[in-house]
Structure formats: C-alpha cells, structure tokens
C-alpha cells in the first residue's frame, strides 16, 4: 500500500453527496490505490461524514474537510473547513470572473445587450441564492429510489 | 488467498448454524406492487402542467401579421385559422408562445433556456397526442427520447449554472429528479426487505421515543432529589469542617432547571 487510508489523512478534498443525516454531510473522497501486481494506480472512493451544523455545503460542492481530534460519533470523523468549489457557480481562477460552461457571464450579458435585452430575462444579481427550489421542484439534494410499495402516501423522493 | 478461504469457511458455518434458505418472514407486512406508469407520462417526465387549450380562431403563425388577410373575405379568413389547418400548426404556435416568454433577446433561438422551452413545448404537445392515440409508436419513441434529452441537458445546466437551472424549473414548471444511483428493477423480495427494514426502524424509533418520554416524566423528581442531595452534602461538609465542594450557584442552577421544566409542563397542559 503506497498511501494511507483516506480516513487517516489530516485534510481531504471531497465531493458532497446526498445524505439525510442532520448536522452532518456525507463526502465522497477519491484516492489512488497502487496495484502491486500491475504497478498501476487505480482510483478508489471512500465515503466520510463531516460535522456541518449549519449545512454549509450542498450536494455537488467540492469541500475541504479536516479530521477531528476525537470522533464526534461512530460515523462523524471530520469537520467541514471550507467550500472550495460550489456547484454551478464557477469562478475563473485567472481572471476571477464568473463562468458558465465555457463562456464568461459578462460576455453573455454584453452579447444580449447588443441584440437588445428583454425585460423578463434571467438576471444573476436578482436571483435568490441556491436552494430555493429544494423539495419543491428540485430533488437533486436527496437520493431518489424506485417506488417499491404503494401505501397511498405521497413519496416525493421516489422515481 | 487466505482471506478468500476464511470468508468461505465463515459463510459455510453461518449456513450450518442458521437456516437461511426458503426463509419466510413471520411479519404481517402486505406488499402492494406499484402500478407501472409508462415512461412518457408527466409523472416520469416531470411536467407539472399540460398543454393548454388554444383558441382555434387565431390565424396561422406565418399569416398573423398579414395585411392582405385583413381585407380578404370571411371564407378566406377562416381558411387561414388554426381550425382548418393541421394540428402541427397549433403545436408550432404553442411552442412559439413558450419560447417567447423566456428568450434572452428577440433573435435568440439557440440559448439553453430557449432550447429547453422548445423541447418542453414538444413534450407537452406529444403527451397530449399519446393520451388520444396510445398506440402511436413513432410519437412514443420520439417523446421518450426527447424527455431523456431534456433531462440530460437539465443535468448539464445544473452543473454549469445552478441559479439559472432553478429559475428554468420555476418558469417551465418542471420537476427535476435525478435517476437513482443503482437503478434495480422492483422485485417482491427486494421490496419486502426494504419494508422489513422500515418496520424495524419504526419499532426502534417508537421504543426510543417511549424511553425518552419516561426519562422526561422522571426528570422533576430526579431534580428535586438532586437538590436535596446537594444541600445535604453541603450541610454535612460544613458540619464536619471539611472543604465545601458544593456551591450555592450549582444548587441554584438545578432549581432554575426545575422551574423551567414545571413551566413547560404547565404550558403543555394548557
């Protein structure tokens, strides 16, 4: 084994994944494991829970997590330090401008102005922060499951 | 190799001790298989509204601003309305109305919001056709593919621009649910396992709640006893001339806690 297990490292970069735990978030951490027979590295994913009382991170965010000096519970071994890359709100590391896929937001707005921007167009400054559609129209913050039982109750997380 | 060998032995031992094959649960759990919903229905596509009824007395989209039609006679005018033209003309008008609502500028025809609005228009129009002609396979295939395409692009948009993604869901009235991570077909065995897990979890929560209530009922008596004990210890220590370890502050904090509990109880009773 070339690297120690992810849970033993002091600080880690993980992707937040859907979890129903309150006061904590679940993270997927990618590590490379050496196969001594092939002398090749293969990616291996580990799942960790980090203490996050204010629910700072949302599903898909890339977050820096730090190991706790003592385990909080049987599962919670880390705490959230900083959200590095929030999902769907990318900033260009060179210019510091906001980016949408491969274009700057400023450029898109300038093009719209040249063509004549309309009144009810989407505006980033007026848009509420991420999460206002949670449990209403956006169910990507939870793990969905195939509907397996009909008991008359509403099952919003079933597909 | 040793590891594999040991696990196999353990499994064999478990098999010898506990009979796991042909096991039937004693629990009275009734499983109702959910009804299969076709993939093109709004339940799966996530459309919260269907195509509205459109006034058929309107002119065709191409002739809506025609000056010649204004001076034409009534028969000609009627021939250029949606009523005397194929259904696709109505669909075209509906899609135009859909895209006009959210396009960025007058010449916008390729932005992601316009694309999604256009596909949503087609999906709703075709869903209405499928309601009338459930055996129309060509529409069924196109509809399924378009629903999946829209979902794929919503997934991309969520990654690139979350704020716009949420705005589009609101504007177009769509529900976005990601696919399950491990989509497995619903079987009786798997469903019963899930239901049994749920049942056991329910029992666990119920008992924990009972225990919690029991402790809460005992709390006032316990606190009174604690106050008595603390006072007794303090008096004894004073009488014996030893260092007093119990402070008045400690006793007061317990008394305060007790008062709060009593107040809370009164509020609940009211």
From TrEMBL, chain A:
MF GO annotations: structural constituent of ribosome
Coiled coil: none
Pfam families: Ribosomal_S17 (PF00366)
Keywords assigned by UniProt, alphabetized: Ribonucleoprotein, Ribosomal protein
Gene Ontology biological process terms in this record: mitochondrial translation
Source organism, top-level taxon: Eukaryota
Keyword Ribosomal protein included in the entry's annotation: yes
SUPFAM superfamilies: Nucleic acid-binding proteins
GO CC term, one of those recorded: mitochondrial small ribosomal subunit
Family: Belongs to the universal ribosomal protein uS17 family.
Protein's name according to its UniProt entry: Mitochondrial ribosomal protein S17
Lineage, top ranks: Eukaryota, Metazoa, Ecdysozoa, Arthropoda, Hexapoda
TrEMBL record, chain B:
Record's subcellular location: Mitochondrion
Key words, A-Z: Mitochondrion, Ribonucleoprotein, Ribosomal protein, Transit peptide
SMART domains recorded: Ribosomal_S15
A GO CC annotation given for this chain: mitochondrial small ribosomal subunit
Example GO biological process: mitochondrial translation
InterPro entries, A to Z: Ribosomal_uS15, uS15_NS1_RNA-bd_sf, uS15_ribosomal
Gene Ontology MF terms: RNA binding; structural constituent of ribosome
Top-level lineage group: Eukaryota
Family note: Belongs to the universal ribosomal protein uS15 family.
Name by which UniProt lists this protein: Small ribosomal subunit protein uS15m
Organism: Ceutorhynchus assimilis
Lineage: Eukaryota, Metazoa, Ecdysozoa, Arthropoda, Hexapoda
């Amino acid at each position: 084994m070339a690297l120690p297990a992810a849970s033993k490292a002091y600080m880690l970069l993980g992707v937040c994944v859907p979890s129903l735990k309150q006061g904590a978030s679940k993270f997927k951490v990618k590590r490379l494991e050496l196969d001594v027979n092939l002398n090749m590295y293969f990616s291996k994913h580990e799942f960790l829970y980090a203490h996050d009382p204010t629910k700072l991170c949302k599903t898909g965010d890339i977050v820096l997590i730090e190991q706790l000096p003592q385990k909080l519970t049987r599962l919670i071994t880390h705490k959230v330090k900083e959200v590095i890359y929030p999902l769907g709100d990318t900033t260009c590391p060179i210019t510091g401008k906001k980016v949408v896929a491969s274009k700057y937001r400023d450029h898109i707005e300038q093009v719209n102005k040249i063509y004549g921007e309309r009144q009810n167009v989407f505006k980033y400054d007026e848009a509420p922060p991420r999460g206002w559609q949670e449990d209403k129209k956006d169910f990507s913050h939870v793990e969905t499951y195939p509907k397996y039982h009909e008991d008359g109750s509403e099952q919003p997380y079933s597909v | 190799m040793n590891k594999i060998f040991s696990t196999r032995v353990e499994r064999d031992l478990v098999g010898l001790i506990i009979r796991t094959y042909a096991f039937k649960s004693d629990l009275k759990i009734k499983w109702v298989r959910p009804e299969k919903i076709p993939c093109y229905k709004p339940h799966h596509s996530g459309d919260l509204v269907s195509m509205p009824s459109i006034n058929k007395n309107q002119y065709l989209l191409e002739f809506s601003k025609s000056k010649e039609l204004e001076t034409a006679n009534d028969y000609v005018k009627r021939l250029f309305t949606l009523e005397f033209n194929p259904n696709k003309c109505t669909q075209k008008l509906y899609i135009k109305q859909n895209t006009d609502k959210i396009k960025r500028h007058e010449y916008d025809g390729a932005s992601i919001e316009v694309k999604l609005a256009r596909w949503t228009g087609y999906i709703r129009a075709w869903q209405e056709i499928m309601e009338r002609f459930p055996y129309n396979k060509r529409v069924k295939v196109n509809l399924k593919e378009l629903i999946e395409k829209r979902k794929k692009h919503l997934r991309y948009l969520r990654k690139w621009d979350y704020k716009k993604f949420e705005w589009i869901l609101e504007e177009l009235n769509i529900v976005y649910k990601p696919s399950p991570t491990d989509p497995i077909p619903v079987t009786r065995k798997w469903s019963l396992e899930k239901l049994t897990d749920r049942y056991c979890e329910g029992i666990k929560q119920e008992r924990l709640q009972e225990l919690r209530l029991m402790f809460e009922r005992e709390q006032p008596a316990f606190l009174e006893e604690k106050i008595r004990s603390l006072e007794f210890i303090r008096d004894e220590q004073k009488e014996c001339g030893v260092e007093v370890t119990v402070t008045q502050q400690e006793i007061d904090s317990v008394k305060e806690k007790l008062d709060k509990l009593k107040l809370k109880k009164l509020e609940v009773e009211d």
